[in-house]
Amino acid sequence: MMIKFDKEKYRKIAKTALKKESKRLASCYKNRLNFDILKLIKLYKVKNLLIFIPMATEPNLIKLRRKISKNCTIFVPFMVDKSLKMVKLRLPFFVSKFGIREAMDSNAYKKDIDMAIVPVIAMDTKMARVGHGAGFYDRFFANLGYRPVVVFVSIKDMYIDDKICDKHDICADFYITPTKKYIKKVCYDRDVVNRARRFDFRSWRRVANI
After folding, report:
1. DNA repair: present as a keyword of the record (predicted)?
2. Average predicted confidence (pLDDT) for the chain
């Protein structure tokens, strides 16, 4: 008999799985994800990129900053009230009142970003995000006014073949883990398809996102 999950129940299961995974993974294993991220950035010719400062159970894309910054400007989220703003990635980081690492506060970036790489706890069959439940990213994207390419990342494949998310939860074009990769069935234009010949999307699982 198939077990039915709701969002809260699956969030707890996924959090536990990610904690276990973060303790056992070798860095070379995690680098599989980083390699695909770099290829996607190049494929889309990204000039302005939003990434994140990782927690212990999240991929560390900060390690890629030197390679990424050769061709594009990197931004990270900064918590403001119940939403986020984008600030330039600058070191060193500090620990905020929320207990997480953040870059130093600066003027918010007002122009468009080309791609946003977002950490997830899990993803459902609509390619919708299961996060920590605070809704920061949902409010941020709702107020953005446009839609960049959205890439979900996780250190473990926590895709669930069920619709457990809410209508306001943000959805992805791609979901990348060290072992499996997912792609929305229609997520790029003809120009991107022409440039994607060296990116083997045949190995990606296609998700309807409807």
Report:
1. no
2. 83
Burial class (CB in 10 A: 0-12, 13-18, 19+), 90: exposed
- Cα gap 178→82, rounded to integer Å: 31
Query: 């918010």: which residue's tokens?
Result: 108
Q: What is the rounded CA–CA span in Å between residue 171 and residue 168?
A: 9
- The structure tokens 């920590």 sit at 132
3-state secondary structure labels for all residues of 37-77: HHHHHHHCCCCEEECCCCCCCCCCHHHHHHHHCCCCEEEEE
> Which tens digits make up the pLDDT trace of 117-143?
999 999 999 999 999 988 889 999 998
